[in-house]
Structures are given as C-alpha cells and as structure tokens.
Amino acid sequence: MDDDSPFTSADFHNVVHKQIVNAVYETLSEGKLDWNLIAPFLETARAICRADFEEGAKIRIHTVQADGEDWVDAEEAFLGISVQDRDDGSEWLSETRWISEVALEEEDPEQVRAVVRALERSVAKLNAWLAEQEAGGPAAPEPPADQGDSS
What we know:
By secondary structure, the chain is α+β, with helices and mostly antiparallel strands. Among the domains are: about 10-55; about 105-135. Helix content is about 50%, strand content about 25%. It has a 3-stranded antiparallel beta sheet with strand order 1-2-3. β1 (about 55-65) and β2 form a beta hairpin. α1 packs antiparallel against α2 (about 35-55).
C-alpha cells in the first residue's frame, strides 16, 4: 500500500485493524497514546465512513409512522438517515429526526425564520410539480433514434 489510494473496507479489516491492535498493545504498556499514532487511523476511519455514506447512504423524508401494526400520518415530516456497509450491506447507522427538531437546533430565531422561508420555497416547488403532473405533466422525452438499424 505504497500509493496514496484510500483504504477500502477490506484493507481496513485486514491491515489497519491489525495495526491498531498492535499499536494499542505496544503503547498501552508505555502510557498515553501520542496523537501521531492516532491521527492516521482516524483519517482512515473517516475515509471509510465517507465512502460508506457516498455509496450506501439513503436519506428520505417520511410522512407516516408505525402505530402498533398500522401506519398513521406522522405529526410532521421527518428525516430518515440510513447507511449500509459497502461490503456486507449491514446497516450501521439508522437515525430519524423531525424536520422542526433539525431547524430548531441553532436556537436562533433569525436562523429559524430563514429555514421557514426556505421550506416555503420548497413547498412552492413541490406544489408546482404537483400542478404540472395533474395537468398532464411535461411531454415525455423522445427516445434516442436507433443508430444501428439500417432497414
């Protein structure tokens, strides 16, 4: 691994994991871990997480929630964030957040007003799209001409 290419998940499990274990055993007996030993592993872990997000993340806006065995309208829209491991497909992150909860995190009224204005613009775009669909929608694009058929 002499090149600068990022570690894959397999590299992490086969190479980095063994290096981490060895480094921990060696340095724990000597005292506190120096940052120069931790930093490369942290960067590799970040790169692996970024790649998992890029390749396996799903972010959705949900409108219903489970109520026993039934599905009912949620009290408001919420985000569902899910990330799967690139190698085995197992989900390692699953979070849900109310849209209002995300908007209120800053605890700044001006920021919340800005979010409300942005959400209103989003709603206007969604309503315009719905109106277009109800009016028959835009014409379907023409399929490309068959360039290989000479009949």
